[in-house]
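Um, can you check?
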Amino acid sequence: MRPDFFFVRDGVVVEIEGYAFHGTREAHRRDVERFNDLQMCPEVRLILRFTAHEVFDDSARMVARIRHALSLPPQRPQLAHQKTPLPSKSRPLPPTNDLR
């Protein structure tokens, strides 16, 4: 999986959500799945999502928000064993009865 932009050192992901590519029910399903997969990546501490409108018509505000996110102190790191590895076809999520 490859995010649109990934500031590796800071663990900040930036995703651009354009209606042309994300405007169907199936695209919405994929976006939700992608967001959840990114959220579980041990290297990711923050995900920022912007619309195409923000990229083209309000880019100064978008850049300011990204800069602000990059200036935040890192959160206490989670131990590697506390995050679930990304599921894949060869490694699906284990079944669970403990849904809280």
About this structure: The mean pLDDT is 80.
